[in-house]
Amino acid sequence: MAGSASADPARLLAELRLDDAARLSAVLRAVPDLWFVVDRDDQFLLCSDENHPSLIEPFAQQLGKPFAAALDAPYDRLALEAVQRARASGEAQRLEYEAATPDGQRRVFEARVTPMGDGQVLYLTRDLSELRRLEREREHDAERLRISEELYRSVARTISDGLIVAGPDGSVVACNPSAAETLGADPASLIGHRLGALGYRMHDAQDRLLPREQHPVRRVLLGGAAVRELPLVLHRPDGSVRRVLLTARALRTSADAPAPSCLVSFRDITEQHASALALEAAELRWRFALEGAGAGVWDYDADSTQVFYSPGWKQMLGYAEAEISASLGEWTQRIHPEDREAVMRAFADYREGRTSVYQTEHRLQHRDGRWIRVLDRGKIVERRADGSARRVVGTHTDITPIEQAEQALLDKQAAELASRAKSQFLSRMSHEMRTPLNAVIGFSQLLRLHPAGDPAKVSEYADHILRASEHLLGLVNEVLDLQRVEEGRAALEPRAIELAPFLEATLELLRPAAQAQGVALSSQVPPGRAVLADERCLRQVLMNMVSNAVKYNRPGGWVVVTLLDAAPGRCAIAIEDTGSGLTDEQLARLFQPFERLGHESSGIEGSGLGLVITRSLIEQMGGTVTLSSVPGAGTLARIDLPAASVPAAALRPAPPPAPLPAPAEAAPQLRLLYVEDNRINALLFEEAMRLLGGIELQVAESGADAIGLLQAWTPQVLVLDANLPDMNGHELLQRLRQRPELAGAPAFMCSADAMPEDLERARASGFQGYWTKPIEIGKVGAAIAALRG
């Protein structure tokens, strides 16, 4: 299609009025637009260019056809009506329509219809497609500009950041409400003025006046780089101060603008800055308070796995500020290996929500290698969106001095308690020992005053002295037993013990005392029941409990041993008596050392230590002991021990020592060497041997003396003291064994050392027996009689 025509053909026809058809045709053909002449019958008569690109179809095909037949509805009707109006009115008509060109494009055309006379009409058409496209684009651009301007105004009005456009001279061209609010002024009062001229001053972040050449707006207007989020202090004309974060960049209204404007955006951070200062001050206060109280502060960031350690935390471990990094390993690697797993598990449990608090006590290694004990506490102060812990803050408090002070206090209290207990023990011990000593010393004095007294009286006094001495010996033995048990030095050898035969054998030892008291003694324990216990300890326990039941019984009463129901794997032994019984208050005092519940002045012998030893032995064997009693009716003692299967066969008793081999030449007397450095003990032993008769005794006061005696005399039995002036009894025995004639001689140790380990050492050294001082003459005589066969 052709563009716009430079001349209107209808106007030319009206003005020229040419008669020459050829010249008229030439003029019309010079017009670039396509035109037609339509005759009075509304058919095509003439065309300006039969090959014009705007033709809908070739003109040769349109000749003789009705006008507008090639147009689509409704444009065919509109074109025909325009032609008819032009004829009828004699005035030019205008028509705009759409039609498809031969290239398949649909385009917009404008038609001018002018009457020519004789019913003919000039129909001139031009292509307006490009013009209409440009018009539509201009309208679209105008709408976009309107929307963009409206959007900018809306954004500028609603955003919280202040926006100012400064012109090339620095004056305010435009500002949004947030900018005016931050500046504390009405927007209209700012337009056209430089802020400096209005009394505003800009200071740097340290609140120092900003030099003019460093002002960000000036720097940008002079061609400098953009300024981004620069912290500044704005001093307003009224004296108030606001802190802002300012960004400034060049703004050119067009590419050929001679000087740029400056777009300034700023955010009021006054409140945030005040909050940050308050938070910093608060952190400084609590860190100062915590570190002043001896606590080190740590701050764990889970995102970076880094930890802030305060100077106090580092100093607690002996390090300077720069000597410990921010890694988590600085803490974990210093935890004591025995504590590390529990501490890390507790920290993980708290972070993952399995526990509500994190608090541990553990050991950390100091720089000098020692271990300090810390109280570690932490709290989650920040969480992620999913609720997991992002930041945990806590403290380490060195509690080593506290624990040391507590331990020192406990040690002091324990020492004071031990001292009081020792004083009480010595006081009771003194009382318990002085009573029998009074009899020993008193009756001994009577014997000296009446050396030739009535033999019956002498015998009576000797009996009193013997009983008192035996009581003293029992007291000493029980004190030693108590000490050994309480120190846990009682060597136990637990084994399965069948109760029925064991009880019968034990009760048999107590039966004479029971018969003397008129008390019936029996066991109702069936065969086939056993306990796991140490034989010696169990016998001591039973003898003590049954002995008490006999001693504190009534004439004609009884003591019976039975079994009670017990939990699986346990065996309950009951010892029931018909004694006077105990009150609740007496039961509460029962297991105290030297406590005899008012029987101290009675004729019933006892030290008040037996039950204390009994309970300790039972507990060491894994058992318990309880007592229940009814005053005036009797008492039931329950001993609960681990049950065991009945042993397959009873233990065989140890074979008796082999008798001495008969000498090559029969000797009328048994030769016995006694090595003892204490002359009183030697005299006592010598008198005892004289009473036994048939013994040739030699006494030596040292190991050297004993060896010297062997030059002219060979003993058949050796009795050695444990502690001699020049060597101990063990060493002396080894030297004596080196002599062939003494290699198999029976040897006995005679010593005041009565601890179990002393007896065990003697057996290990080769001693056949052990006689504890004070010696029991009957026991010594029985042993010698066994040697004689």
Question: What characteristics describe this protein?
Answer:
six-stranded antiparallel sheet; 789 residues; alpha+beta; elongated; 23 helices
Residue share in β-strands: 15-25%
- Helical percentage: 40-55%
- Give me the secondary-structure category: alpha+beta
Tally of helical segments? 23
What composes the largest sheet? Answer: 7 strands, mixed
- The unreliable regions are 1-7, 12-20, 594-608, 650-667
Number of strands: 28
Average of per-residue pLDDT values: 81
Rg result: 63 Å
Q: Given the C-alpha coordinates, what overall shape results?
A: elongated
- How many angstroms does the end-to-end distance come to? 158 Å
Q: Name the assembly state.
A: single chain
Task: Give your account of this protein's structure.
By secondary structure, this protein is α+β, with helices and mostly antiparallel strands. It has 23 helices and 28 strands. Strands 17, 18, 19, 20, 21, 22 and 23 form a seven-stranded mixed beta sheet that branches. It is elongated, with a radius of gyration of 63 Å. The N and C termini lie far apart (158 Å).
Brief write-up:
By secondary structure, the chain is α+β, with helices and mostly antiparallel strands.
SSE order and pairing:
Blueprint: H1 9-16, H2 21-30, E1 34-38, E2 44-47, H3 59-62, H4 75-89, E3 93-100, E4 106-117, E5 120-127, H5 129-158, E6 162-166, E7 172-175, H6 177-183, H7 187-190, E8 201-203, H8 216-221, E9 227-235, E10 241-251, E11 261-268, H9 270-292, E12 295-301, E13 306-309, H10 311-316, H11 329-332, H12 337-351, E14 358-365, E15 371-383, E16 389-398, H13 400-449, H14 455-486, E17 494-498, H15 499-517, E18 520-523, E19 530-534, H16 535-551, E20 558-564, E21 570-577, H17 584-588, H18 610-620, E22 624-630, E23 634-644, E24 670-675, H19 679-692, E25 695-700, H20 703-709, E26 717-720, H21 729-737, E27 747-751, H22 756-765, E28 769-772, H23 777-788
Parallel strand pairs: 18-20, 24-25, 24-26, 26-27, 27-28
Antiparallel strand pairs: 1-2, 1-5, 3-4, 4-5, 6-7, 6-11, 8-9, 9-10, 10-11, 12-13, 12-16, 14-15, 15-16, 17-19, 19-23, 20-21, 21-23, 22-23
Helix pairs in contact: 13-14, 14-18, 15-16, 16-18
